[in-house]
Input
Amino acid sequence: MNPSRAFVLLKPDCSGTDRRAAVDAAVAAEGLVVACRHPVSLTPADVRFLWSEYTEDGHVLMHAFLGRYLCTAPSEVLLLRGPDAFAAARRIKRAIRSRYANGPFANLIHAAEHPGELARQANHLLGHCPECAAPFVSSEPLTSPPRPAGRDFRGETDLPALVESLWPALQSVDPSAPVPYCLDRSPVAAVYLGADRAHTLDSAVTALWSALPGITLAHAVLLTLYAGRVGGCPVAVGSHEAVSRSHRVLQAHGITTCGVGPAPS
Ligand SMILES: [Zn+2]
Output
């Protein structure tokens, strides 16, 4: 394997904390060296450029949460050098997240998943000094294809206020299960939602919000994130008819990790 370069981005919940030591240890364990470190204060424009799979109108929830997560405190970018640095950086990301992450908005560290993404993001984040000035190149497409989109909730909801109200719960090490939404007065059956990696926060929340008439957006976000974090949970209870109807709407939105069962006791 050739010596090569990659980067990791230490997010605000890592960059100013003693978790940096765990990252340094993981870098050393992979046989890589930190060639360069730069503090970086990400702006919403940076976030849009770095995660181009999330669009302006189709991922308004993701952008609202990422803005709160990444744009309110400094991050740090580390240029790494060593054998097979791209794959090693991904392993470092997985190792740190598996130990410390508390969901998608408390996951400490980013590394590119594709060589094209690595080139685009590294060229945006690095180049602040001679050590990291050499551009990254990739024969793969530099932009990531858009991911499944959701409804544009901006016209009807104050999204920054929504994010602030949910933020403490999303940072919790051991979050409590949100109560399932009540579809009617006969809670004998339940709709279950599992983690669905084919969907985004926006597409999954939009599906849930459409399938559970009357649910608040905040409740739909909490249920979606909790299902993603623990692998699955009941999201609504009601009569067999109401539960079947909601299940069909979820399926019509392309959600495959959902099902119907008895209400939790
Ligand atoms: Zn540098």
